């Protein structure tokens, strides 16, 4: 395998990131593959200057017709296509994703650009029947202003694109604070943005900015009076701090926080398909997806048949260097993540859980943290089972009654993703009904992870309530005006009110 630092440098140069941006800076970037330092980037604390420039750019961009803004996002998608291999590889080197997932993340960026281009010729408002003669009512959607984006390490580039592609076609400027663990891929996205801007020709200066740094920079963005919409993706802990601060200044939050996602496996489930679905959702991305399956409710009638198969499948998933073709589980992001995993497994054992796997997987790189995915057979749905640990741990429990299983699946703080595996139409429909899963994502015969961009993405309760990506998520990036136009010579008042002097 090539030296990680050399390859990182080569990729950044190929994408067009100036060397000065990733050499001799004050923030060291490590690759989770080996634990080695692969670059030193410069933190940028001047949030006020970036927001001021973005605000000026917004004042111009908002008057560019939406389909023309869409043309810019089309070019951005083209540039992403051209750099897919390099950016995908950089995601692998910086975030530790296996090759197909690194590339898949960039594909998701391309998909949202395509989606946003279509939207740029829509952004529909309604025409509403007026109760007054000679009047017309309608609603118009206008750009909101500067959109702040705070993102997490585990989707270092896709989350930016979900927000940025929509924000840009909607006529906004973007200021992005990526995770301090993954600044290189952010610098790469910025370089790709600049290439698209050059091709487009008249993108106002400052329309997009990247601010590298830790939470203090995020806090400044959260508190900035000229950022009317802020999209924050990360832990529920982060959302608990960010949410009230945004509320205090009446800014619009788009919060995409933690998940504690569950699947219910019913007696009629296709168990081969279920096994594959569970395996990908629970162990893929080394358990570091917000939608990772973390709890599994197995019906009593199949528990003893399914569990040994799941244990066997777990022990056969290839773990190791994510650059290798055959690897399906790469490293955890850092030592802290491995420690959190071990702490959670300790708690599971102390609660009477029977743990399979979960040990450190040695690759010879002492600064890297690979772990065997863990299954924890739990006697009860309590304690650690009800918390999100951002690592590959799946808590497995028995159930006998579907109502009870649905109640347990809903009985956690988070409300992001959920699944049912069944061939029984009544069970599937009950799970999807108003009395079923309380999550933002509810699937049938598919795992909890691996969403497509066409649907609105996000979750309820402690997941924050935000929606990004498809469906009508674009509305969060615009302000709505209701317009009433009187084309008569009279001035009738609504609700029959009279006001004559
Ligand atoms: P994190 O909360 O530690 O950090 C996320 C981002 O928030 C980082 O950029 C960080 O610098 C910033 N931040 C932290 N505290 C802040 C504060 N007080 N003010 C402003 N910014 C602050 O999360 P992480 O470890 O990078 O990512 C893992 C978490 O993200 C998991 O909980 C996962 O479920 C969640 N996640 C959610 C989604 C979703 O769409 N719901 C997607 C990806 C990840």
Automatic annotation (TrEMBL):
EC annotation?
1.2.1.3
Tell me which Pfam families the record gives. Answer: Aldedh (PF00171)
Keyword annotations: NAD, Oxidoreductase
Q: What CDD domains does this protein map onto?
A: ALDH_F7_AASADH
Residues annotated as domain Aldehyde dehydrogenase: 25-480
Name the active site residues.
256
Q: What class of enzyme is it?
A: oxidoreductase
Among InterPro entries, the record links this protein to:
Ald_DH/histidinol_DH, Ald_DH_C, Ald_DH_CS_GLU, Ald_DH_N, Aldehyde_DH_dom, ALDH7A1-like
User: What's a Gene Ontology MF term here?
Assistant: aldehyde dehydrogenase (NAD+) activity
The UniProt subunit note reads as follows: Homotetramer.
Similarity field: Belongs to the aldehyde dehydrogenase family.
Q: What is this protein called?
A: aldehyde dehydrogenase (NAD(+))
This protein's species is Parvularcula marina
């Amino acid at each position: 395998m090539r030296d990680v630092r050399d390859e990182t440098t080569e990729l950044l140069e190929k994408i067009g990131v100036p060397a000065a941006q990733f050499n001799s800076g004050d923030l060291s970037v490590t690759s989770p593959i080996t634990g080695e330092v692969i670059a030193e980037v410069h933190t940028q604390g001047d949030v006020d200057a970036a927001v001021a420039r973005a605000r000026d750019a917004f004042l111009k961009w908002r008057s560019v017709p939406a389909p023309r803004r869409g043309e810019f996002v089309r070019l951005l998608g083209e540039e992403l296509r051209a750099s897919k291999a390099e950016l995908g590889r950089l995601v692998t080197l910086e975030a530790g994703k296996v090759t197909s997932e690194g590339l898949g993340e960039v594909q998701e960026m391309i998909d949202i650009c395509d989606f946003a281009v279509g939207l740029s010729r829509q952004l529909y408002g309604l025409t509403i029947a007026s109760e007054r003669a000679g009047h017309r009512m309608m609603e118009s959607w206008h750009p909101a202003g500067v959109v702040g984006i705070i993102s997490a390490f585990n989707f270092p580039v896709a989350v930016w694109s979900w927000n940025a592609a929509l924000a840009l076609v909607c006529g906004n400027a973007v200021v992005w604070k990526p995770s301090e663990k993954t600044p290189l891929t952010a610098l790469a996205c910025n370089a790709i943005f600049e290439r698209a801007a050059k091709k487009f020709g008249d993108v106002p200066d400052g329309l997009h900015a990247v601010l590298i740094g830790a939470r203090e920079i995020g806090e400044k963005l959260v508190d900035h009076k000229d950022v009317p919409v802020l999209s924050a993706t990360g832990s529920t802990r982060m959302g608990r701090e960010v949410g009230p601060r945004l509320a205090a200044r009446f800014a619009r939050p788009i919060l995409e926080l933690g998940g504690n996602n569950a699947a219910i496996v019913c007696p009629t489930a296709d168990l081969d398909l279920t096994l594959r679905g569970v395996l990908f959702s629970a162990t893929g991305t080394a358990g570091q997806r917000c939608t990772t399956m973390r709890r599994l409710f197995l019906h009593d009638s199949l528990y003893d048949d399914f569990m040994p198969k799941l244990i066997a499948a777990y022990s056969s998933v290839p773990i190791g260097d994510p650059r290798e073709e055959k690897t399906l589980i790469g490293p955890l992001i850092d030592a802290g993540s491995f420690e959190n995993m071990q702490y959670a497994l300790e708690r599971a054992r102390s609660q009477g859980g029977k743990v399979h796997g979960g040990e450190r997987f040695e690759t010879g790189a002492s600064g890297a943290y690979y772990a065997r995915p863990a299954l924890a057979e739990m006697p009860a749905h309590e304690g650690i089972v009800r918390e999100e640990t951002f690592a590959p741990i799946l808590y497995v429990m028995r159930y006998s009654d579907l109502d009870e299983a649905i109640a347990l699946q809903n009985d956690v703080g988070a409300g992001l993703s959920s699944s049912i595996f069944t061939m029984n139409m009544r069970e599937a429909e009950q799970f999807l009904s108003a009395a079923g899963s309380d999550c933002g994502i509810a699937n049938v015969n598919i795992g909890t992870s691996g969403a497509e961009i066409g649907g609105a993405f996000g979750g309820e309760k402690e997941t924050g309530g935000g929606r990004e990506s498809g469906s009508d998520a674009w509305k969060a990036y615009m302000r709505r005006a209701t317009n009433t136009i009187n084309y008569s010579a009279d001035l009738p008042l609504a609700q029959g009110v009279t006001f004559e002097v």
